[in-house]
Amino acid sequence: MPHLSTSPAVRPAIGADRLGIGVPGYAHPLLAPVEWAELLRFSRVHAGPGRAAPLHWTVLNVADGPGARPDPHCLDASGRLRNAGLRVLGHLDLTYGVRAFGELVADAQRFLDWYRVDGFYLDRCPTGRDELSEIRRLTAALRSMLAGTHAPDGGRLVLGHGTHPYAGYAETADQLVTFSGPWTDYRWSQAAPWTAAHPASRFCHLVHGVPRTHLDEALRIARWQGAGTIWFTDRTERAGADDPAGSPWEALPGYWDEIVSRIGPGVSE
């Protein structure tokens, strides 16, 4: 798959020279202390002088967004990650374009004020051409809010489409989630032709229900389709796809150490 240079409006992902990990959102640190601690250990083991950690970003979702007030446990967990040089993204739920612009900007400001996030993960992002102008408006506002903050490289914006959107969305953010769903669908999926005009650092795949025996196959699919960031887990949804209580992302995969061994230094794309 040909990978061409990005436009000046977007920035390549951390560790873009190799496949890396994006964490779509663990449970609250009180419920998942091992998971949050493991992110630090993972990056300390695999990062080094002149080499970026293969953890590209992790999403902080306090309570369907930043919550009503600062959460001390989330402050501590996200602060530890940021102090270790890891990128933390605030979770903004676009509800497929239903949420008002003002509500989203207000949530983003709370994330910046309380948690000093390094960017935003725009979950349930619309995919259609008709909604593109409103997403451009939102991402421009978020870019402006991130400008001049501590966020490295001006911050990071990830659009959580979950499927391939209209091609114009590629110019509005740093990375697009072009697959989010079960292994049973992923193993037969195909990349949209327009993605071939962009480097792998522009795309992310989130896949649940991946059997341990198919982990290598899943990694091959990601590389073949040109995804630079992945999250694979053997965990499955326990409720509806839009119900956070049933999220397959809230805990570590059962084969976490095996993913680490395959994603760490020495694994080429």
TrEMBL record:
It comes from the Bacteria. InterPro entries: Spherulin4. This is Spherulation-specific family 4 protein. It comes from Streptomyces cremeus.
